[in-house]
Automatic annotation (TrEMBL):
Protein name: Cleft lip and palate transmembrane protein 1
GO cellular component: endomembrane system; membrane
Compartments in which it is found: Membrane
Keywords on record: Membrane, Transmembrane, Transmembrane helix
Transmembrane segments: 36-58, 534-554, 560-581
Keyword Coiled coil in record: no
Source species taxonomy: Eukaryota, Sar, Stramenopiles, Ochrophyta, Pelagophyceae
Similarity comment text for this entry: Belongs to the CLPTM1 family.
Composition skew (Basic and acidic residues), residue ranges: 16-26
Major localisation: membrane
Membrane topology note: Multi-pass membrane protein
Length: 660
């Protein structure tokens, strides 16, 4: 009988026939589940929840940012309200500081009436009204007198140098240098009211320049030409700080010897609270922002927008027309709690930074809704100012389109972080061998997380940040137990700990036969892991110590404990190389990456690039920004190793990932 090639290949040979019964028990039984049931797991549900949240957020934000886009056609054919100020109008801005909460226009027309209580601190001219106009800034130093210590030329020059961004901030974030600080002498009555637990008010007016204008700024009473901004109280009162919050930063080397304390620049000037416990503390707002909304579209008369003032005019033909003035407001969304300065009887100078910029309608609505949401969180859920500071920074320092991208990236970051966490737990739960894995990296990661949590608590971070960090430490403790088999040892005269799993691996490798390849790989894993960690620690240790000494000489700290935690936190950022590089050395020595949890690494790899986006839009230490790009380099090396080293799909985690 003649058989075809396919029949000959399908027919079992004598060798295959004898091996088949032996291999049959080794084959895994395929799951009987199939169809829709196989896709209903936690990963799928998390992905669906993320997609639904993004769709819901996009729908609601689009309605808030542009109400005209969702109006029915019936509204567009009725009476329309047109803008009173056309696009690219020329504007002037005038800002004054006064002891009065209200400044009538006739009062501001006579300088002899207001010179003892009010002072004009800023006039800015020739500003175009459009969304492309760059912001105008000025940095002021308000002084009680010309002889004030903080108002000297040397003090102003030192403050200007301290405000300059660093090299990395200019290169990575594009921050620009600030201009020279100007000195403003306040009237004696204003400074006396400030030191008597009173407040000062910031008044500002935006004027559209026309040929018929006789008065400008705060002296103009024509509401169609000049828009008044609601006054701002520059002092707020709250409970006095306690504990570490009441301390001021100082040069710690002064505690050792005055000569050592003179090394480096002096500690930054900052007033402290000098009253008694239980009293209210006065805090100064060191910055203020004046905004005008650049909106030029026609609006239906039936649609009302809060803050948009309308006027009724007569057209040349006698018909009635409606116009609206551009909304103006004082923007305090970026004023976080760490920027406030304590006001006491010893203060003779205070900083004040002013900013003016036209904003789009979408940006205005976004800030207004965010402010309402933040106030609701404080009132309904009891959130403190510190809890919402990061949200304030994100909204104030990020453009609208980039903020939308950041919100989308946040959802993706949360999704991939959940998937990475699930894969990490599954990997260590089912792990049977440490072959090719760096156990020391797991231990170093636990120590790093403990240091970061202590630093967060010392800095007064909110519970929204500290509690997840504490939960991550508990999970990392479980991973350390799975990786090392750590157990308390009471057999010795004093309590000790043992790493039973590592000891078992080392003992097995020591007593293994010469032809036992598995035991040789275990021994090589322990040896390379130990040597790589040792060499990296010896090479990076001097850099960490040098940076700690540098911060001790040049920076001010609350105390020795804070300096030690800061130095250890910087060591954690540097220690990321110690955490990741031993695994690279193990991969190179074994010429294999089959032992790595590649699903986990892929999720972490995507999250690393999302962290790069956060590094540009969220305020964080420069060392943390550098660590984000450092992780990119390490993960790219991981991918390169996966490309050049062959992957045995029949063993290790790589085969399991491929099967799933």
């Amino acid at each position: 009988m003649v058989r075809t090639r396919k029949q000959r290949e399908a027919a079992p040979t004598p060798d295959k026939a004898t091996k088949a019964p032996e291999e049959a028990p080794k084959q895994k039984k395929k799951s009987s589940k199939g169809g829709l049931t196989s896709y209903l797991n936690s990963s799928t549900l998390a992905t669906c929840a993320a997609v639904a949240y993004v769709a819901f957020a996009y729908r609601n934000f689009s309605r808030v940012l542009d109400p005209l886009a969702n109006l029915p056609d019936d509204y567009r054919g009725g009476v329309q309200v047109t803008p009173m100020w056309p696009e690219n109008s020329t504007l002037d801005v005038e800002v004054a500081l006064s002891t009065y909460a209200s400044l009538p226009h006739d009062f501001m027309r006579n300088a002899s009436l207001y010179d003892d209580s009010t002072v004009i601190i800023w006039r800015e001219q020739n500003i175009e009204l459009n969304t492309h106009t760059k912001d105008r800034k000025i940095d002021l130093r308000l002084c009680a007198s010309e002889s004030a210590l903080q108002c000297s030329d040397a003090a102003l020059a030192a403050a200007e140098r301290a405000a300059q961004p660093g090299v990395l901030s200019r290169l990575i974030l594009g921050e620009e240098s600030s201009g020279p600080r100007q000195r403003i002498i306040l009237p004696p009555k204003a400074w006396a009211q400030l030191q008597a637990n009173g407040t000062l008010y910031l008044h500002s007016a935006v004027t559209r320049i026309t040929e018929k204008a006789r008065w400008r700024g705060l002296a103009d009473n024509d509401v169609r030409r000049t828009a008044r901004v609601p006054s701002i109280a520059l002092v707020k009162f709250e409970a006095a700080p306690k504990g570490r919050a009441a301390l001021a930063k100082r040069k710690l080397l002064y505690d050792v010897h005055p000569t050592l304390g003179s090394l480096g620049p002096p500690a930054p000037w900052a007033p402290t609270y000098t009253g008694e416990d239980g009293e209210m503390c006065a805090k100064w707002k060191p910055e203020a922002a004046v905004r005008v909304v650049a909106e030029f579209r026609d609006w239906p008369a039936d649609v009302s927008v809060p803050g948009m003032q309308r006027f009724r005019d007569r057209a040349p033909g006698g018909s009635v027309v409606y116009k609206y003035a551009p909304p103006t407001y004082a923007d305090e969304i970026g004023l976080t709690s760490d920027k406030y300065l304590v006001v006491n009887s010893t203060v003779d100078a205070l900083p004040l930074s002013l900013n003016f910029q036209p904003l789009s309608f979408a940006r205005w609505q976004l800030i207004a809704r965010m402010e309402e949401g933040l106030k609701a969180q404080q009132e309904d859920f009891g959130f403190s100012e510190n809890d919402i500071d990061e949200v304030r920074r994100l909204i104030a320092d990020t453009k609208t389109w980039l903020l939308a991208v950041t919100m989308l990236a946040s959802v993706l970051h949360l999704l991939f972080e959940f998937l990475a966490f699930k894969s990490d737990v599954d990997f260590w739960k089912n792990n049977k061998s440490l072959r090719g894995l760096s156990a020391r990296s797991v231990v170093v990661d636990l120590i790093s997380q403990i240091v970061v949590l202590a630093y967060l608590v010392d800095q007064g971070s909110s519970l929204l940040v500290s509690i997840p960090a504490a939960g991550a430490i508990l999970i990392q403790c479980w991973k350390v137990e799975k990786a090392t088999g750590v157990r308390p040892d009471f057999s010795r005269p004093f309590p000790w700990i043992r790493c039973e799993r590592l000891e078992a691996v080392a003992l097995s490798a020591k007593n293994a036969k010469a032809d036992d390849k598995g035991a040789q790989l275990d021994a090589a894993t322990l040896r390379v892991d130990r040597l790589a960690t040792l060499y990296l620690s010896l090479s990076l240790g001097p850099l960490v110590v040098g940076y700690a000494v540098k911060t001790l000489i040049y920076d001010a700290h609350l105390g020795w404990y804070s300096w030690g935690l800061g130095a250890m936190t910087n060591a954690v950022y540097t220690g990321g190389f110690i955490l990741m590089t031993p695994q690279l050395a193990l991969n190179y020595h074994l010429k294999s990456v089959s032992h790595l949890p590649w699903r986990l690494l892929c999720f972490r790899f995507v999250n690393t690039f999302i962290d790069d986006l956060f590094a540009f839009v969220i305020k964080m230490p420069v060392m943390h920004r550098v660590s984000c790009f450092r992780d990119d380099v390490v993960f790219l090396i991981y991918l390169y190793q996966r490309r050049i080293y062959s992957v045995d799909m029949s063993r290790g985690v790589a085969g399991e990932d491929a099967a799933q």
